[in-house]
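Posting for a labmate who doesn't have an account.
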Amino acid sequence: MAKVLIIDDERAIRNTLKDILSFENHEVTLAQDGVEGIELVKNNKFDIILCDIKMPKMDGIEVLEQLMQMGVESPIVMISGHGTLETAVEAIKKGAYDFIEKPLDLNRLLVVIKNATERRALIAETKELKHRIHHKYDMVGNSEKIRHVKEMIERVAPTEARVLILGENGTGKEVVSRWLHEKSKRANGPFIEVNCAAIPSELIESELFGHEKGSFTGASKQQKGKFEAADGGTIFLDEIGDMSLAAQAKVLRVLQENKISRVGSDKEININVRVIAATNKNLKEEIKEGRFREDLYHRLSVIIIKVPSLNERLEDIPLLVDYFNKQISAEYNSAPKTFTDDAIEELQKINWTGNIREFRNVLERLLILCDSVVSGNEIKEYVVPMK
């Protein structure tokens, strides 16, 4: 069932459309002119709007323009008994979903309504997914060190500078990389993440740069690499300290020349990619031990952002408790629980070697196993023995 608004100055057409669409189980609202229609849209949400073009007070194109200026996301279908190709093209250019001529083909109208409502549902679903993804990468905290990270992101993100993110496992290096991308001029481009530690050394070059068919055993077809996939956007090289020296040399060449060659090909492909890298290793020590190229380090570390460990920002734990309490409770469709002051103090005494990742797991465990009020005793019972 869809909520449909019909804007038409002809009563007979309004009533006929209402009867037909009501029979199809749609909820129909009527407006006799554009002014009334706009007021209805201001105070109600509709899944689709049907709007006549030739009307007194305000014609349909003017209505369409005002609805677009208002940011209305409902699909708008223009209908007219005096339609021309030029009128239809103008309506579509101004944001109309479709254009139908009078006398209306009712089968076509029903198909248009079906497609438009499905499109609206898809847009709503996409927005919800984006909302969830955005909140997945929230950066929670108000400590001095986390504020410094946020300030660095705000200053660096709009530039094209390469960034090296340092920090222990679980501190949120990926979150920082996401923020750098979302606040950059490349935000509408792809964000491609590569976990260098998870890819076998013999496959890393193929993964990063792609390969040609038959270039090695198992290469049954041509495949683009991550750098090509990230063209116009950002590539995030996570755990770059675990990359082999051979792959490091190839990455260095890409950073120098902005070109790649697929495995098994001599053809060079131009790419436009911003590189963000992260590691939990001390790369200067790795350089001394001969496991990381110094020239690559200097190419990557134009800007260095150090993400603090949770132990370095224990004052953020109350905010993190509140955030994860609400988030996890929503996932389990249950009410958030209450954490007493002594419970917060117990959480601040723990040595968080796994940082935010470990902290969230512990909060989830507490919310499952503890009673309605999470006290200090329960923290000791359910966290300490199980760590």
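Reply:
Got it, the structure tokens are right above this. The mean pLDDT is 89.
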